[in-house]
Amino acid sequence: MTESIHHPREAAFFDLDGTLLDGTMIPMVIHYAINEPTLLHAGRRLGGMLVRGPKYARLDREDRAQFNAAFYRNLKGLSRDRVELLSQDLCALLRDHELYPGAAELVARERDAGRSTAMVTGSLDIVAEPIARHLGIEHVGCNRLAFDRRGITTGELLAPVMAGPAKVAWMKRFAQDEGIDLARSRAYADDSPDVPMLSAVGHPVAVNPKRGLAETAARNGWPTLILGRARTKDSVLRLTLGGAATLARMLERRWV
Amino acid sequence: MSDDRRRTPPFPGRERLVRVLDNDSAPRVIPFGEGYLYERLPPGTRVVSAPEPLRPLPDPGKAVRRALTHPENSDPLFARLRPGMKVLIAVDDLSGPLPPMRAPDARQIALQAILETMAACGVDDVEIVMAIALHRRMTDREIGHVVGRRIFDAYAPDRLYNLDTEGPDAMVHLGDTDAGEAVHVARVAVEADLVVYVSLTFAPMSGGHKSVTVGLTGYEGLRAHHRPDVVQNSMSYMDPPASELATRIDRMGRLVQQHVNVFHVAVTLNNRIFGPKLGFLVRDEDAWSNLDLLAFSGLRATLDRLPRAAKRAFFHKMRAPYGITSAQAGETEAVHRKTLDALHRQLLVPVHGQTDALLLGVTYLCPYNVDSIMNPLLVHCTALGYLFNLFRGRPLVREGGVIIVCHPLYDEFHPEHHAPYVEFFHRCLAETRDSHTLMQRYERRFATDPAYVQSFRDGYAYHGAHPFYMWYWGENGRQHAGKVIVVGAESRTAADILGWDVARSVPEALDMAASFLGRTPDLTYLKVPPMLLADVT
């Protein structure tokens, strides 16, 4: 009789925004807002976001899950087919312009090394899943919008809201289901709210780390990976420029 | 004795560069990271200092042009050019000279002459590659400094770039040597009709076949010689005839030349690392004027009060006013013989007899932390690797002797440049210091780690295998020394990981050395920089 020995497998977990993708969810939500049927609707939705800006900034500092939940409320009232249609445009845009040059290669190297690949992100499924498919990432843990019976977004996210510790819960469940040894696995992320996700694996990597994570990585001896072009420091200016660039591209596509 | 050594001319008067201190001798300046110690060393201590800078060539551009038209063992460059041919110019990277050279860099001067010749011969399919092998990529600013703004603007980024040794299909396996060494060279070099290699050689271990065989290869190509057993059999690797490293690289280089058409251009520098303002730092302290003493006190007082980041910024901005002492071109081995002669003229200092204890000061800089941090692994590599190996004949310190290293040894790593070092130092080296075990257990995993490969290709990190080489580089020093004591270590953990004892001061280190050796040791202080090569008999 031969004895079969089960070797736990390894996985590589990737955050999306700021890690594989140059940007945050903010320009993505602006994309949906700016593509409202009329200028009046678009202005109202963007104006609302601007007014609530300080609240978002505070929530982002305090609790990423609450920030995600609050920010995605800006999508309330959109129909399912419209969200899906706009997502196709957005994904093409992100895929062609916002993915870091080394992102696809990094994922491919992890896959070639025999690791399962999984994206664990606070982004919406309508964005995360197509990009994961494009990169060849097999599994996705992400946020999902709630729709009412008429197929209109309620602005709420389905529980659990994917951020911070919820990402770790997803990773643990995934590891259990797939026979993954987290101690031998890797995680890639860019910001402090992802420290739990990075701490859950044996080989964490800080990618393009923002200040808080850069310090944590230095303290813990985590490798720092700078993907692609030289980055400016994360700042209001950068976020504004990123948002403005997306807006400009949207305007160009729609009205010019 | 080898031909190379017989050819080296005697250098009369260099015996005075070995000074024996007495009771009246002034304290000595000892490099100490981003600062200096000023220590009164015991009477009887030998201080080995570098020779004066050689007189530079009056017109280096003219010297390079002459070398191109009157090459060694080769047709002139213009005679090897044909319109329409594809030429690759490979250039030594930022790992030398140290500190970097004040503009114009010697490589820029050589490149200008080469490109003029190309243009005159109607050769316009020219690409320039920085031969980084597994070093970190150079930034645009760094490349611009090396090649000059005009060349940078004309060629970058499409025709002037860092070699990508991890790119898909980037290497070609040219075959194996008779001794079984696998030779891999970058495809861009193999597919070029002519490779012109511009080397700026500042140490005898560099240049020659090492330029193409090491500079234009990747991980698989380095595995034949970047190994602990090879370093162990190289006593020293700064003395090519006694170096297994050089023997293997030469053997591989001859195979490369059967497949790649190489024209070598080499320039050497003198050792003028400081301008007049800081010139006192390399002068004999007994010859200091009151003004020198005042300037040194002012420098120390300033450095003592500055945070380390500011001190680093100050030192890393320094550019050295080297002068070019020789330029030669042509066939690789013939060029290298002339290059070694020029280097020996600048570096050799005759020293009689070994020492019980060798005192070394480690500065803020080594080949692998330009604009970066001197992390503990690099301190180890500099002390037990490069500084220990600055000899030919016999090591300065006797077998089983003590090496005293002065450096603040802080546990700091540049998060991007030295990303794989952190894991190597704190995870692998904390587990074992045995080079062979480290190589077998971890080297390939690091070399193929997706995060490290990606940091190397897209970011500015050293390759995943590089920290291993930094450990291997100290192999012969580690095996030779009976004990290593570090003076002023801030991180006892880092010292423990390296296996070094810690002393708070030089006198305490000397007491520890005496207790280890069972008697008061003879002490020799190797005053570097500027660099020298102790010819120990």
What can you see in these coordinates?
Helix content of chain A is 51%, strand content 14%. Chain A is an alpha/beta fold and 256 residues long. In chain A, the strands form two sheets. Chain A has a six-stranded parallel beta sheet with strand order 3-2-1-6-7-8. Chain A has a two-stranded antiparallel ribbon with strand order 4-5. In chain A, α1 packs parallel to α11 (236-255) and α3 runs antiparallel to α4. With 537 residues, chain B is α/β, with parallel strands linked by helices. Chain B is built from 21 helices and 20 strands. In chain B, the strands form five sheets. Chain B has a seven-stranded mixed beta sheet with strand order 1-4-19-14-16-17-18, with helices on both faces. The interface between A and B is medium-sized, with 26 and 21 residues.
Write the layout of secondary structure elements.
The complex is a heterodimer of chains A (256) and B (537).
Chain A: E1 11-14, H1 25-34, H2 39-51, H3 53-62, H4 64-71, H5 80-98, H6 103-112, E2 116-124, H7 125-135, E3 139-143, E4 145-147, E5 153-157, H8 165-178, E6 186-189, H9 195-199, E7 203-207, H10 211-220, E8 224-225, H11 236-255
Parallel strand pairs in A: 1-2, 1-6, 2-3, 6-7, 7-8
Antiparallel strand pairs in A: 4-5
Chain B: H1 3-7, E1 18-20, E2 28-31, E3 36-39, E4 46-48, H2 60-69, E5 86-92, H3 106-120, E6 125-131, H4 140-147, H5 149-155, E7 160-162, E8 171-176, E9 182-186, H6 187-190, E10 194-201, H7 209-215, H8 219-222, H9 228-232, H10 244-259, E11 262-269, H11 290-305, H12 308-316, E12 324-330, H13 332-347, E13 348-351, E14 355-361, H14 376-387, E15 391-393, E16 397-406, H15 419-428, H16 435-448, H17 450-458, H18 466-472, H19 475-480, E17 483-487, H20 492-498, E18 501-503, H21 506-517, E19 523-526, E20 533-536
Parallel strand pairs in B: 4-19, 5-6, 5-10, 6-7, 10-11, 13-20, 14-16, 14-19, 15-20, 16-17, 17-18
Antiparallel strand pairs in B: 1-4, 2-3, 8-9, 11-12
